[in-house]
Amino acid sequence: MSDATRVSAPSAFSIWMDHHWRSLLASLRALLRKPFASLLTIAVLALALALPLGLLASLQNIERFAGNVQQSREISVFLKQEASTDDARAFAENLRARDDVANVIWKTPDEGLSDLRKTSSLGEALDSLDSNPLPHLMIVTPKADDAALLTALQTNSSVDIVQHDAVWRKRLDQWLGFGAQLAWILAIVLGAAAVLVIGNTVRLDIQARREELGVLQLLGATDGFIRRPFLYLGAWYGIAAGALALVLLAGVNRALQPSLSALAGSYGSQFALQGFNVVQAAVAIAVAGFLGWIGAGFVTGHFLRQTRPMGR
Which residue ranges does the record assign to the FtsX extracellular domain (predicted)? Predict the structure, then answer.
């Protein structure tokens, strides 16, 4: 046979890739062959996955609503009314020289009065004042632990009032930390439930094809060859369930948005719920598909160990 008519045999890698592709399509056809049963399984999985995903999304929105952590740690220091501009400048320089201070913003009485005009409806009342009643203001941002800094400011003879709102933020952070732990616990428990549900679904499919798989084993098919279509079937279940869970959360978001917008508007806020971004949604779907892969792999591995012919 000449070189022109000789046909080269496909490589082992191309055969392996071809079987992966065929297994992927065959598993998808198997999923679509039983649409009602598949939809029920996917719906159950989606509800299980939607609970931890919804809790994580809620925590993200609460953090956003609470505002920037840096801003919530700022300390407002009002100097005494008799403090002069030179006194305020020296006070600000001393604060900036401290190791526990990240930043200091100095607002003069004139700047404070201008800000008050912009943010309130007291313009006419402010115009009627004979003099500016506002003192110098220092907005101090601590670097880390602000306990020592707060004590120093409160005991300083030049300071009249110190306003610090870190207490509520620390409590909120504790609640958010608790919520995050609860979300992860739910994710682990319900993720395990998803693995079991997918594993049981794949097990039923394996039982229905038990004789066919036994023949393949007798013909010398490898474990990977037999396992592969079921692994992809489990992954399809997980991917579909993850996508449906995100759709359900988007529906909940849409349903809650009008009432939340009205509530936020009553406080002069334009806060709106935000769902997962594209990257987060892709990660959630990928994790759900991985859970399906694990569930199918556990069941098929058990089946192959139980039915492996003697001598293999």
Answer: 74-148
